[in-house]
Design goal:
- 2 copies of one chain form a homodimer.
- The first copy, chain A, is of the alpha+beta class.
- The first copy, chain A, is built from 7 helices and 5 strands; from the N terminus they run αββααβαβααβα.
- A 4-stranded mixed beta sheet of chain A has the order 2-1-3-4.
- The longest helix of chain A is centred in the N-terminal third of the chain and has 20 residues.
Chain lengths: 159, 159
């Protein structure tokens, strides 16, 4: 792909980030998923307008691309996002097997405008007993039986 | 809440984890969100059946709870999940401001059955230049203008 094409896709992500704030959808974030030189998914931050804390630009772009392509697997796709992803979105990018991430703002720039994803990175990196949100182990002897049942299934679809 | 109630909610999460595999929805994961002693959101893993890599049990339970409560903010809610969350789901839990997490299986137990969320934890904890999925900074001078526009908005809704 030429640099010009890369820039066109990033420009599309940035345009979505501005659309999000101009239309009151949510924070200033936009993203597109690209496959074979064409946009197959678009997203903007819509957390506050649709009351969905998972409705980040990257998440919506990934979900739309998967719907468009009929697969949960986006290998062969690249993501252009107006800002470096938070851990939730980065996790989704990994689960979706996206090939490469292009990002416009660093998380350090975002922090200067009040969006502190570093806090989320710090929390995710902690041992579970040290996190701000308490994590309590409960009924492990019962919970494991689902994995045991899964292991017995012959037609299970691993991913 | 009594221990018995806690166990009932975890039992509901575990039942969903088994329903997911018995009905061929996805991997053996279930979760419920609880507020004031009542379940307000339910989820099971549906990644492979609905072609959505973000359709983890915790994500779906959070989204359903937010829809039910009409808010992206789940402060005052607790999450019961059949397994320790991956970074994507943990990120969503933090974004949603969930009070507390009860989990049935540790990620170490999940890994014994082929579900290695530790890889995702390791990747998220890395510096961006060291990750397996390449991250490329592109057009930062343009991308920052969305944050600058956001800062000028008087009616912006921070979160």
């Amino acid at each position: 792909m030429t640099d010009n094409t890369h820039q066109q896709f990033m420009a599309a992500a940035i345009a979505l980030s501005k659309q999000a704030i101009r239309e009151g959808r949510g924070g200033p974030y936009g993203a597109v998923v690209v496959k074979d030189g064409a946009i197959v998914g678009r997203g903007m931050n819509e957390v506050t307008s649709v009351n969905d804390p998972t409705a980040h630009a990257e998440m919506t772009a990934i979900r739309q691309a998967c719907e468009q392509l009929g697969s949960w697997n986006l290998a062969g796709c690249e993501l252009y996002t107006s800002c470096e992803p938070c851990p939730m979105c980065l996790g989704a990018i990994y689960w979706a097997r996206v090939d490469k991430i292009y990002y416009g703002n660093t998380k350090e720039i975002a922090a200067r405008f009040g969006f502190n994803s570093q806090y989320f990175y710090d929390e995710v990196a902690k041992a579970r007993e040290d996190r701000q949100i308490a994590m309590v182990l409960l009924m492990p002897e019962d919970a494991i039986t689902a994995f045991e049942e899964w292991e017995q299934q012959r037609d299970r679809q691993s991913y």
